[in-house]
Amino acid sequence: MDNVAHTLENLHTETRSFRPHASFAAHANATSYEYKKAGVDRLQYWREAALRLAWREPFTEILDWSDAPVARWFHDGTLNACDNAVDRHVREGRGDRVAFHFVGEPGDTATLTYADMHERVQKAANGLLSLGVTTGDRVAIYLPQIPEAVVAMLACARIGAIHSVVFGGFSAESLRQRIDDAEAKLVITADGGNRRGAHLALKPLVDDALAGPEGQGPAASVEHVLVVRRTGQHTAWTEGRDVWWHDAVDPQPAAHEPVWVEAEHPLFILYTSGTTGTPKGLWHSTGGYLTGAAHTHRLVFDLKPETDVYWCTADVGWITGHSYIVYGPMINGATQVLYEGTPNTPHEGRWWEIVEQYKVTILYTAPTAIRTFMKWGEAIPQQYDLSSLRLLGSVGEPINPEAWMWYRRVIGGDRCPIVDTWWQTETGAIMISPLPGVTATKPGSAMTPMPGVCMDVVDDAGRPVANGEGGYLVATEPWPSMLRGIWGDRHRYVSTYWNHFDGMYFAGDGAKKDVDGDLWLLGRVDDVMNVSGHRLTTTEIEHSLVSHPWVAEAAVVGAADEVTGQAVVAFVIVRSDAHGVPTDGDEVAAALREHVRRQIGALAKPRTILVVSEVPKTRSGKIMRRLLRDVAENRPTGDVTTLADPTVMDAIRVGLDAGTGD
Ligand code: WT7
Predict the structure, then answer these.
(1) Which residues contact 501 (CB under 8 A, 6 or more apart)?
(2) C-alpha 22 to ligand 1 mean position (Å)
(3) Ligand 1: which of 313, 395, 524 to mutate, judged by most atoms within 8 Å of the beta carbon?
(4) Which of 90, 102, 122, 400 falls between 20 and 30 A from 532, CA-CA?
(5) Among 119-123, 490-494, 559-563, which stretch is predicted with the lowest mean pLDDT?
């Protein structure tokens, strides 16, 4: 509870509250009746939400919890995710509606209607079949944010194959780890992507991943690599294994009957950082997951599919992109913006230019982006016409009240409701959020659990805390879009989420109930860090650092950072017997940062690496990260009485003052 206690001290009492505008409330998808309905009969509430999907065979049982904590929702029904996201709109006369306004970073654009998507997913499904992929096979997707990424995911779903999207910023080694764990048969990638005006290569990383680390040899499960031509850069080619998308997919017939799967058929695996070194392959079902994604998307974003232009700025490689670009919005028939690039390429007004040009009405982004825009100054967004916006969303980490207020005023013109949405890769869909048009919001609070979702804040013994108190965030009842497990490891699923508190799902976050019972998220209570809304574990970065020949020992902490929320700060002890170690601490730091980038990916690169002579440990040998966080955040060191050697902290501080750090 270390960091919970710390944040609680700093949490001022927020008194501002923003009531929904009457004009918004009058037309909102959500009313307070949602809470009432869900309160009266939760399962019936979810049944009604599920019935909004297109089912091939109707389900008769809502929830089967007999194998707890593995839930089965709507299990005797059959459906297809791609049919729901695409075919259904064409079937019901909405084929001409734009599904995506794609904006490439270099300025290329494409408009794709639901009918266009229908053609593409059918061709891609046939392409996958021609490469020997069938129902139940796993497919790794390692693509930039381009329409083919969406098409590839939906084509997998269409044939009942299980996609595992790996964010393009991950290294070859991280990709290999995920391919091996999922035993993927196919990898879908591109020659490269566009990043800040340059071409970023992807295919060479796939080649490296598949060649495998020395001694291990090529990834055994992979039969083919399907390559989209995006940048046109030269690409090494393995005959027989590598296939161009334009050769394998484009000539296929645009006719394919979706494979109807049972509701519990796995839709996808998504890897996320756990508290130990190896990433966890969380897997989600089809029926329950889609119910959660579509239902929350309609209520929380108030989507009016005929008139709204919705833009979620996340990458499809993260759960936010899965639930709130691909499945939720497409099932609801949304028109979306899909943007490949970064917010400051070619200039710092790029996002606002896109909002103006496409008349975006709903924007969903992360606090780290908002803080970056605050830093760049409000003069930049003010150059653009943002009057089309009517609702703003936030996700990924706690949003600080100042950022919330800035978002509301500068981007939302004081008229747009803000929905701060708390959820996780594990939860599949939004769990805590205001309902726009219903909830009076407080800057910095995610407010209350969604209708039909049961969450609470409990103390160490699992007892609900009183209003005004803090503790651990838990879910007390199963929900349709909950993860079904960790791929191939039931034991790890149970021990990670269900063993902390009897019969409750432990989220890993600290939270506080304010005097009104509204929820304030306080960040992780475990060794998981949140850097720009991306999840990283201290141990995975420590392992990477220690694998470098110069490093004897490493301790990593997430230190508060104005822009990224948390930043990776590493304390390393250099081996006394290592050869060729630069005497300059900066050079050591630069080399180690590059090492972590190559091993895990750019997102894991430490902001700061401090070379120290010792790290603080308890008598049982556990690194005391709390004390290192004090150092990294320039605070006086807290209680050191449990340290094996209480003088260590003084030695570290003296060393840092002498400038051995970076
Ligand atoms: C962790 C989950 C869910 C999509 C993005 C991240 C933190 C997420 C909020 C929020 C405070 C938040 C939590 C959570 N988090 N949204 N609105 N307020 N914290 O998904 O990578 O699975 O990370 O992100 O700490 O446990 P993820």
Answers:
(1) 458, 462, 472, 474
(2) 30
(3) 395
(4) 102
(5) 559-563
What's the half-sphere exposure (Cβ side, CA atoms, 13 Å) at 424?
A: 25
- Axis crossing angle, helix 287-300 with helix 42-50, rounded to the nearest 10: 90
pLDDT at 623: 83
* Average predicted confidence (pLDDT) for the chain: 93
The answer to whether the beta carbons of residues 138 and 164 sit under 8 Å apart is yes
pLDDT band at 3 (very low <50, low <70, confident <90, very high): very low
Q: Which amino acid is at 652?
A: I
Categorize the per-residue pLDDT at 277 as very low, low, confident or very high, splitting at 50, 70 and 90: low
Residue 657 confidence class, pLDDT cut points 50, 70, 90 = low
Does pLDDT of 79 surpass 70?
yes
Position in ligand 1 atom list of the atom nearest CA 432: 17
pLDDT category at 661 given cuts 50, 70, 90 is very low
Q: 151 is written with which tokens?
A: 């098409």
Q: Which residues pair with 162 in a beta bridge?
A: 138
With H, G, I as helix, E, B as strand and everything else as coil, classify residue 61.
coil
Ligand 1 pocket (Cβ < 6 Å) reads 272, 319-320, 395-398, 420-425, 446, 507-509, 521, 524, 530, 533, 535
Q: Which two tokens stand for residue 607?
A: 């902001």
**Which residues share a beta bridge with 112?**
100
Distance CA 197, CA 573 (A): 38
Which residue has its alpha carbon closest to ligand 1 atom 3? 424
Cβ proximity of 567 and 561 under 8 Å: yes
The CA 134 to ligand 1 mean position distance, Å, reads 33
Query: How far is 183 from 138, CA to CA, in rounded Å?
Result: 7
Q: For ligand 1, pick from 399, 535, 566 the residue to mutate: most ligand atoms within 8 Å of CB.
A: 535
Residues contacting residue 427 through CB under 8 Å, at least 6 positions apart: 292, 475, 479, 481, 482, 483, 507
Q: Which of 198, 255, 260, 346 is nearest to 59 (CA)?
A: 260
Which of 265, 268, 226, 233 has the alpha carbon at shortest distance from 127? 226
Each residue's pLDDT tens digit, 127-183: 999 999 999 999 999 999 999 999 999 999 999 999 999 999 999 999 999 999 999
Q: What is the pLDDT of residues 545-597, one digit of tens each?
A: 999 999 988 999 999 999 999 999 999 999 888 888 998 889 999 999 999 99
List the structure tokens of 33: 């009746």
End-to-end CA distance of the chain: 30
How far apart are alpha carbons 13 and 95 in whole angstroms?
50
DSSP 3-state of 330: helix
